[in-house]
Amino acid sequence: xxxxxxxxxxxxxxxxxxxxxxxxxxxxxxxxxxxxxxxxxxxxxxxxxxxxxxxxxxxxxxxxxxxxxxxxxxxxxxxxxxxxxxxxxxxxxxxxxxxxxxxxxxxxxxxxxxxxxxxxxxxxxxxxxxxxxxxxxxxxxxxxxxxxxxxxxxxxxxxxxxxxxxxxxxxxxxxxxxxxxxxxxxxxxxxxxxxxxxxxxxxxxxxxxxxxxxxxxxxxxxxxxxxxxxxxxxxxxxxxxxxxxxxxxxxxxxxxx
Length: 257
Description:
The protein has 6 helices and 13 strands. The chain is of the alpha/beta class. The protein has one domain. The strands form 3 sheets. The protein has a 9-stranded mixed β-sheet, with helices on one face. Strands 3-4 form a two-stranded antiparallel ribbon. A hairpin with a 2-residue loop joins strand 11 and strand 12. Helix 3 packs across helix 4.
């Protein structure tokens, strides 16, 4: 079982034009594994529109589905099964999971070097885990987290958690993931207080991207996934994909008439 996907979606592939290879870890989102991996999923309303079902993750022969541990019907395909298998390893044997993750990051580094690109890593492709608290061993040395184990690499993620303590980890970039639901407004305010007013927001829009949102410039987040290159204090605009196109939870910013 492979943990990391290398440039496995159209947006990360675009990063190659800018000199990067992107390795992403995709786990089973929210509580589909039976354990909640996205602590703000309910209040943000993002569960129904999760990118887990975008692209090939939402396709299945004959539209077949299977029932996940939380009772959700998921497309019956190899992608969904693999995400659940990775998540089971993470939950049931964390040391083995992290050992394999370190090994795969090393392999991805060699691959990027052969392609004459820089490797960047995103560990929360479809989850929101505080990996800053997950130790690992690299070359016989134990580190408090994979970011410090691979201090020479750039890591990045989107998060809806308003208080991840990553200020002392210079090679880890976070973009705060916005939800348009009223219930999420206090979480947004808390995130701004904790991360600083220049923290970038990622917002999903129903159709086209506006020029401004929440008093900030909007940049096109679909042009690449290299969020650590964005200027500070902007909204990273993403057009709804997969089930998010039919969002009724309030998570997606609606189109302006």
